[in-house]
Amino acid sequence: FKEDIDAAIEDLNKAIELSPQDVPSYLLRSQAYSSKEPPQLDEAAKDVEEALTRQPGNIMGLQLRATIASMQDRFEEAIADIQLLVRNDPDNVFFLRQLAQLYQADE
Length: 107
Prior knowledge:
By secondary structure, the protein is an all-alpha fold. The chain has helices at residues 2-18, 23-35, 41-54, 59-71, 75-88, 93-105.
């Protein structure tokens, strides 16, 4: 599994080199970094920030940034990102559940 994640990161490095504007590649690489053992959260955070700089408001980017922030015990930042998603889609059950979980974790 570790080799698969490393191979994915290598492939995404090449994809980003070939197409530096490709937001999904940054987000996928961020996910890969956060899935490593141990997670490489600083690298993951850099990639998600790059993606959100290129495409502010990207739903996957905001979710991923919230996940990374919660993994770093930065719950207020995670809550802020999910609140933004809920404001934009107030009937999204997944976002509401995620927000509730973050409130509980922040206690």
